[in-house]
Structures are given as C-alpha cells and as structure tokens.
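From the shared-data thread, chain only:
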Amino acid sequence: MRMTTPRLLVLRALLADPAQERYGLELAGAAGLEPGTIYPILVAFETAGWLSSREEDVDVHAAGRPRRRYYRLTAAGETAARTALDSAAARRRTANPRPAW
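Structure, as tokens:
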C-alpha cells in the first residue's frame, strides 16, 4: 500500500492507543485532517485488514446524531502501521542526513 502523508498521520493517531476504538471524526481531529480526507483512508486500511470496525448501537433520535462507526487496529494492522512509520522515518533520515560535525 502506498503511504502518503495523510495515511501516515492516521496511522500515528491510531498507534497513540492501539487498543482504543475511535470514530472517524475523532481520528480526523487527532490526525489533523479534514473529515472528507479520513474516510477513504479508513476504508483502504479496513480493506487491507489493518482495521476492524463496528457501528455503534444507539438510538439516533435520542442521541440527536447519526450512528458512529468505530475503528480499531487489528494485530496485523498494528504491525503494519509501525513498519510503515519506521520506513517513512528511515526515508526522511536518508533524504536529510545530519551534518557529520
């Protein structure tokens, strides 16, 4: 999977607490992304098996809002996320080496 900056930001947000379920708008805020950007990323990660999701069981009229879909990293997703972030950091170090002095 191609790792773009927005995808890396989402992975970083998810890894802040890998076991926690988080809904899309919450993840968008944590990643610093617009809501319209995050949902295609979440779908791609879920399709790849990196995320599992569930729709909350709530009375939308009583709650006064739509149901939320909650996402959580799978075990494979947590490993893949750490690998992707490590690879991106290594690429940055290679592209911008520090002076030897």
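The first helix runs from residue 5 to 15.
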